[in-house]
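Sample intake sheet
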Amino acid sequence: MSRPPAPPALVTGARGFIGSAVAATLGPVATLSLGAAGWREAIRAAPFRDRVVVHLAARTPGQPGGAAQYHEDNVDKATELATAAAQAGAARFVLMSTAKVHGEESGPEGVSADSPVAPADEYARSKWLAEQAVRDVAERAGMPWVVLRPPLVYGRGAGGNFRALVRMADSPLWLPLASVRNRRSVLHVQDLADAVSLVAGHSAAAGRAYLPAHPQPVSTPALVTEIRAVLGRPPRLVGLSARNIAWLAGFIGVSARVRKLTGSFVVDPGPLERELGWAARFDLAAGLREALS
């Protein structure tokens, strides 16, 4: 995949799961930590001029904290970072958001960057507010901006929903998923890092939001079966009706988690593919072998 060279980059969250892959893909980068109490001072001292700022640091789902903490970490920090970057002459601002700004489930047609927003939790709401704040700051200052909204990102070292799914699959239990007919978009972390590298330097990406994903969604039964195959376990799936699955989930108090497993959420990576030439390189089997090795 040919791509225009990106200017030097400054990356926040470079030690995280996604950040480490992005930093390695972009090559030598400046890094900026926003986790300590002196994050405002750290922003003021950062070397922004002529750099692409790639903002990955965030309070993610599952971390402790309420609305105020999500707002500070995901909205306030993004706003101040974009403001300082624009004032210091940054070349571009790339914000990592989430497909969850469009909600928790999609219809059969999936969602695109132009679909209505419907954030359903504090994390998604804070990322949508961050998108709006960064766009407003950047457009007032004339600084190019790009937003990426990935779905479930997996790979070696992934946490969150992917880690929970692997824990569930890595058991001898029969799982009541054989009758589930959902479709969910996923993305290997290296493919996401490639997308970041591409939008960091491509002129056509400026002022756009993209939803990078593998073009072939996967059902939860297929995903669990693939994970178990990599782990050397048999599929061991049994069929239950959607009603019985919902009842069982409610009985044991995991309804929200089960809805995420059994519902459909498909995103459209087409604009990123057609307009910029990006393509996901990891199919599910290869991606899971890397992730679980």
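Comment: The first helix runs from residue 17 to 26. The radius of gyration is 19 Å.
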